[in-house]
Amino acid sequence: MKYTLLVLLTEDNDNYRTQLEERISDLECIEEIRYLHITDSVDLKKRAETENYNIKVSVKISFSGLTGGTLTSKIQKEVKDLEGRYCMILPQSMLPSKKFFQYAANVPDESTGVLILGLHDNKVVGKDCLQSAEDNYTIYTVYNKQPSENDFENCVLCKAELLNSIPHALNGHFSVSALYQTILRDGKKAAYAVNERLCFDRKTGNSFTDKKIYSKDLKTAKRKGIVPSQKMSFLEKLFSIKKFNGRTLYTFLGQTVSVKVKKTPKFPSNAVEVEEKVRDLKKLTDLDLKNSRACLFASFTKDGLVSNNTLDYLKSLREYCDVIVYVADSKALPLTVEKLKKLCDCVIVKRHKEYDFGSYKRGYQYLSDSHLLEKIDSLLICNDSVDFVGNSEDLKEIFTKAKADDAYALCMATYGFGKKIKKHRYEWAKNPHLQSYFMVLDKKVFTAEYFKKFMSGIKRINSKTEIIKKYEMGLSEMLRENNVKMGSFYPYDDTNIVNPYAIYLNQFVKRSVFVKHMLSK
Fold first, then answer.
1. How buried is 185 (Cβ within 10 angstroms: 0-12 exposed, 13-18 middle, 19+ buried)?
2. CA distance linking residue 288 with residue 519, whole number of Å
3. What is the DSSP string of 30-88?
4. CA atoms of 443 and 481, how far apart (whole Å)
5. Distance from the CA of 71 to the CA of which of 21, 34, 343, 511 falls in 20 to 30 A?
6. What DSSP element (H or E) covers 421?
7. Contact at 8 Å (CB) between 88 and 155?
8. Rounded to 5 degrees, what are φ and ψ at 8?
9. Is residue 274 within 8 Å of 344, Cβ to Cβ?
């Protein structure tokens, strides 16, 4: 697929044009380059003809400068002759790699309406690093990821006529958000490029915007429904407390403060806490343990219920796990408990407020007390933060491949929390770690003293950041210190700065086996 590249120039900068054209001079996917000066009406065509550029580009290059109107209206005028063709909008503040321009040509299709490149989940580097790193990393595609509200922090590729769906009054903010929402309303996917290395000039990115422009764009975005807004009566503006978009709004004399309050889970009055032992694990023999594998399943029964997806997941695991211990940090309705008892060997539903690792600890202790750990060779720890959408052969493949490692997960993340910056905040640093929503452990690991000590040491921690740092990442650090061989079902990429579940555990991948809840529609 070929596309036109429309570059939004906010200032005269010969270096930018030279650096850009160096990267794309030999690319067949770009059929035309248009430079649009968006701040004044400089005669760029005359300027381009008189200056001597050393970069030879084989495609047509044109220059224009439009006066009056908003940024969106200028772009719409510039691409009105490109109907039916793809166009990439690139602000001067961004300079992607050559790899990105090549990658972008292969992303849009009948089901994907737009490709967005932003700053989040991508690495901003210097120009020298950009040049040297082009062949040493992979650009991945994730889907339906919210773009930045600042249009100068987004590069967009789509059919040119789709740009007409953007309210023309927008002038540097929320335009890409509007396009993103249009794509989703049309039932198509919005692709987002991640793990790219790009240059970003924040000064240039902010040169066209100020508080007045932002305020005006925000009003337009709210009026058009691009940004959710809460309508208030005159009396409510004087004083009110309202719930909105997952937050609590406190308003007094026209001033509103938004606060996110952590809610304490509430359960129906007839929800119960139970520990139901369906089978006596001490009596199990080798004939009962044909797979020689047990499963610790951590869950949360919201409103006292268990989802059909979780029940299907447990049913699928049953084929490969001889014993399933279900532990929920919650309460459950009696009917829910009965459903779980049909699929599990032990059902523990009690509020302990230690999240999934607290559930793993309790399930592990139950297996230990039942003397089952010495009878099995493999232990699966997993939770209900993912849905299993694959088939029996997928699970068979995962468990077969797990035999080559002592600790094996679906995904191994490359980056994580490094040194502490301040309370509950850490620098983002290389910290390879297995992700705990699905992890298979060999007997030499789950029976080791260091592992027993780790599990028994799990305590209640209020901060989720600290939980991830101490237990999720801490588990892999402990395994590494004890020379445990680790591996993952999805390929580990040493250069990947993105959480791998965003890449592999979404419903849009070609072979979807697991889907992470936060990535579901």
1. exposed
2. 37
3. EEEEEEEE-SS---HHHHHHHS------SSEEEEEE--SS-HHHHHHHHTTT-TTSEEE
4. 17
5. 21
6. strand 412-422
7. yes
8. -90, 110
9. no
* Contacting residues for 254 by C-beta, under 8 A, at least 6 apart: 237, 238
pLDDT tier for residue 518 given thresholds of 50, 70 and 90: low
Indicate the Cα dihedral angle 430, 436, 440, 442, nearest 10°: 70
pLDDT tops 50 at residue 356:
yes
The total of other beta-carbon atoms located within 10 Å of residue 233's CB is: 8
Is the per-residue pLDDT at 316 higher than 80?
yes
Cβ-contact 88, 122 below 8 angstroms: no
471's tokens = 């237990």
List, in sequence order, every residue forming a beta bridge with 265; answer none if it has no partner.
none
Q: For residue 54, give Cα distances in angstroms to 18, 57, 89, 186.
A: 8, 10, 24, 44
Task: Tell me what the pLDDT averaged over the chain comes to.
Answer: 91
pLDDT of residue 41: 47
Residues 6+ apart with CB under 8 A from 518: none
Which amino acid is residue 443, in one-letter code? K
Q: Torsion-angle region of residue 232: left (phi > 0), alpha (psi -120 to 50) or beta?
A: beta
Instruction: Please report where in the chains the tokens 């523990």 appear, as a residue.
Output: 348
Tally of residues, the chain: 521
**In what helix (H) or strand (E) does residue 381 lie, and over which residues does it extend?**
strand 378-383
pTM of the model: 0.89
Q: Which residue do the tokens 């699970």 mark?
A: 395
Residues 6+ apart with CB under 8 A from 328: 298, 299, 300, 301, 348, 349, 350, 359
Report H helices in 457-511: 464-467, 473-481, 500-504
Average pLDDT over residues 394-415: 97
Nearest-10 Cα torsion for 397, 399, 400, 406: 140
Instruction: Note whether 27 and 98 are within 8 A (CB).
Output: yes
* Residue 257 φ then ψ, to 5°: -115, 130
Residue with tokens 């490029």: 193
Place of tokens 């009965």: 338
What are the Cα distances from residue 379, in Å, to 23, 237, 502? Answer: 50, 57, 25
Whether 392 contacts 452, CB under 8 Å: no
Q: Report the C-alpha gap between 133 and 511 in whole angstroms.
A: 29
Using CA atoms, how far apart are residues 439 and 386, in angstroms rounded to an integer? Answer: 13
